[in-house]
Amino acid sequence: MNYSGLLSFSFGWLRDRRAVKYLALGWLVGLLFALSLVSLAWFLFGGVLSALWSGDAAVLSFLMLYPEIIDAMVADFIFLSTPVAFFFTSLFYGVRAAAVSFAMKKSGSAVHGFNLDRAVSLPLLFLCCFFCSVFSFFNRKFLLFPAAFFVLVAATFISDEAISIGSGILALVVFFIYCIVILYNALRLSLAPAAFASKGVSIMGALRKSWSLTEARFWRVFAHYFVVGVVSLLAFGAAFFLLSMLLSFVFSLLVSPFSLAFQAAIAVSLFFLFPFAILASAFATAFVFNSLKH
């Protein structure tokens, strides 16, 4: 296994100015995601927060008397923010897939021209990867696990106490095992963006190509991603620590208490560094794809 070549290629884009536009796309998607969550939170909590900020004792007394209202508002936020998060996750995947295409071109591979049609198809590729991973489209024997999970969950509600407890424990075990299956499927399909970047390959064709390339090579692919992940964690972890400490000091001069400045520094640091991790994984995907293809 050529780990030196893997690491050199996975982080070589740091010296290429053309990679800046993919970082900018990542920052743009992250900013829109943050603004969407803030807008949703303000829509749900804005009136209450404004009343509390103005010192409205009646609102404070009402919330203290009926705390379940806050729980209901938080539940509404989680419910409404879930599809928003899923949508922006697909956009992040699209940015990563576009970066994979750039990495493929940089490695000398023939890639499909990047146009509006291909750009729109990237989030769709994410959705296909997601559902094919969850529902084991290419490995349908594992569908027995979610079927067993739902049967056991139903049994916990219609059985007596002893059987319900046993069914609940078994349901958790089955759910844990199926999470491993989903991760296995996701890793087998992780090369789909690289395959999709190739000329003349459709979305389903890219998924089938990724599945066939990783056949009997799961641990090799896992080892490549693991090495890049560990190095990325160490490098970006150190950068995150230094940047968050610096920003905490700067923000503490502007706002108080320090805990608020520290939380803001962490959020800004994650926002700034996350696209770097996306590009590192994109280049690793291109390297693994090319190494398995030849």
Describe it.
- The chain has one domain.
- With 294 residues, the chain is mostly helical.
- α1 crosses α11, α2 packs antiparallel against α11 and α5 packs antiparallel against α7.
Helical percent range?
A: over 70%
As for the number of domains, it is 1
- The helix/strand order is HHHHHHHHHHH
Number of strands: 0
Tell me the span between the first and last alpha carbons. Answer: 14 Å
Radius of gyration over alpha carbons?
23 Å
**Average of pLDDT:** 84
Task: Please give a quick description of this structure.
This protein is an all-alpha fold and 294 residues long.
Primary descriptors:
mainly alpha, 82% helix, 294 residues
Describe the secondary-structure layout.
Blueprint: H1 3-12, H2 20-53, H3 57-65, H4 68-106, H5 116-134, H6 144-158, H7 161-188, H8 192-197, H9 203-213, H10 218-252, H11 258-293
Helix pairs in contact: 1-10, 1-11, 2-4, 2-11, 4-5, 4-11, 5-7, 6-7, 10-11
